[in-house]
Amino acid sequence: MIILGIETSCDDTALALIETREVGGVFECRILSSLVHSQAELHSPYGGVFPTLAKREHEKNLPVLLEKLLEESMETQDSGSKTCPWLRTGIQEDNKNDKIPIDIIAVTEGPGLEPALWTGIVFAEMLSKKWKAPIIPINHMEGHIVGSLLRSDKSGGEWQRLKPLQMPALALLISGGHTELVKIEDRQDSLVTALPQFIYTIVGQTKDDAVGEAFDKVARLLNLPYPGGPHISRLATEARKKNISSSVKLPRPMISSQNFDFSFSGLKTAVLYAIRDAGKLSGDFKLGLAREFEDAVTDTLDTKLRKAIEETNALTVIVGGGVSANSYLRAQFEKTAAEYGISLYLPSKHISGDNALMIALVGAFHYQTRPRTIRAHGTKRLDNR
């Protein structure tokens, strides 16, 4: 089965093409091509994503990326592959009688910025009409979960099996728009041998700012560029190397609460007050405060994760979302998983950010477990299959 993935939930325009098969009752996939075009530089002057600008850029980038995707996919194929004719058929209007061998189109339907989302959905509908391929609407957050099960994100046509997932599992989703703890179980009545049918239950989520949003807002307070996460992490790393600590002790919000919810707006406000009281921002002050902020975020996420592991008896932990690229957080999660003696699946840098590879993979899950032709519309909850 050949699957095209489309992702335009925020400011990254992404397309991916994968092929899937079942071998001995086991699901396998290979990545034909996965492309992401970042708009970060365009949005940096605004200190965040400007929705109408993102929409315009998606409209401009999608056709260009598709042609490049088809070219790269053709290069990864063996000479006898049925996918070789892609470049010749392409999306040219003079090839109306040719059918590109796309079995399904998987497109992000939400959550995300509405103008950006609809750009991808309209593009998917146009291709669906031309290629006679069904559309499968995909939840962006489910993409971050399933994407972390990939062993490799490299294109080149090599077949791979997904990482083994012991149930129950727990996903920590940390991105610019979300901070969630999700319990994952497998349906016992599944008639499909190659693919599991996951049941998702959100056990905790942010009450206000997401963790990635907090990183961006604190970076702005420290006069750092957008996106702020990598810049704060760079300063925090430098502070640890120089043994620079902050004189300000930031709160660890909701760390003692009896639930698994998060809150980061108060942490951001505490940074604002610290900067106001300091007056002039010296180099060492910025280094120490960046370190303290990253420490506070890490302590909060790790404490909640530990409580959730114990509550759900999780045997596997999956971390996904853009903030999962933070090396300090990754190191702490590795320590936690080792202490509990459970598996930890962290995404590669490519998978941690917004990408269409994870969307295409979830499309395979949905299509093989519940075949259907659906016109993408609306926003689907993570726990509503």
UniProtKB/TrEMBL annotation:
<keyword id="KW-0012">Acyltransferase</keyword>
<comment type="function">
    <text>Required for the formation of a threonylcarbamoyl group on adenosine at position 37 (t(6)A37) in tRNAs that read codons beginning with adenine. Is involved in the transfer of the threonylcarbamoyl moiety of threonylcarbamoyl-AMP (TC-AMP) to the N6 group of A37, together with TsaE and TsaB. TsaD likely plays a direct catalytic role in this reaction.</text>
</comment>
<dbReference type="GO" id="GO:0061711">
    <property type="term" value="F:tRNA N(6)-L-threonylcarbamoyladenine synthase activity"/>
</dbReference>
<dbReference type="Pfam" id="PF00814">
    <property type="entry name" value="TsaD"/>
</dbReference>
<feature type="binding site">
    <location>
        <position position="144"/>
    </location>
    <ligand>
        <name>Fe cation</name>
    </ligand>
</feature>
<comment type="similarity">
    <text>Belongs to the KAE1 / TsaD family.</text>
</comment>
<dbReference type="InterPro" id="IPR043129">
    <property type="entry name" value="ATPase_NBD"/>
</dbReference>
<feature type="binding site">
    <location>
        <position position="326"/>
    </location>
    <ligand>
        <name>substrate</name>
    </ligand>
</feature>
<feature type="domain" description="Gcp-like">
    <location>
        <begin position="31"/>
        <end position="73"/>
    </location>
</feature>
<feature type="domain" description="Gcp-like">
    <location>
        <begin position="101"/>
        <end position="360"/>
    </location>
</feature>
<keyword id="KW-0819">tRNA processing</keyword>
<feature type="binding site">
    <location>
        <position position="229"/>
    </location>
    <ligand>
        <name>substrate</name>
    </ligand>
</feature>
<feature type="binding site">
    <location>
        <position position="216"/>
    </location>
    <ligand>
        <name>substrate</name>
    </ligand>
</feature>
<dbReference type="InterPro" id="IPR000905">
    <property type="entry name" value="Gcp-like_dom"/>
</dbReference>
<keyword id="KW-0808">Transferase</keyword>
<dbReference type="InterPro" id="IPR022450">
    <property type="entry name" value="TsaD"/>
</dbReference>
<dbReference type="GO" id="GO:0002949">
    <property type="term" value="P:tRNA threonylcarbamoyladenosine modification"/>
</dbReference>
<keyword id="KW-0408">Iron</keyword>
<feature type="binding site">
    <location>
        <position position="354"/>
    </location>
    <ligand>
        <name>Fe cation</name>
    </ligand>
</feature>
<protein>
    <recommendedName>
        <fullName>tRNA N6-adenosine threonylcarbamoyltransferase</fullName>
        <ecNumber>2.3.1.234</ecNumber>
    </recommendedName>
</protein>
<feature type="binding site">
    <location>
        <position position="140"/>
    </location>
    <ligand>
        <name>Fe cation</name>
    </ligand>
</feature>
<dbReference type="GO" id="GO:0005506">
    <property type="term" value="F:iron ion binding"/>
</dbReference>
<keyword id="KW-0479">Metal-binding</keyword>
<dbReference type="GO" id="GO:0005737">
    <property type="term" value="C:cytoplasm"/>
</dbReference>
<keyword id="KW-0963">Cytoplasm</keyword>
<dbReference type="InterPro" id="IPR017861">
    <property type="entry name" value="KAE1/TsaD"/>
</dbReference>
<feature type="binding site">
    <location>
        <begin position="173"/>
        <end position="177"/>
    </location>
    <ligand>
        <name>substrate</name>
    </ligand>
</feature>
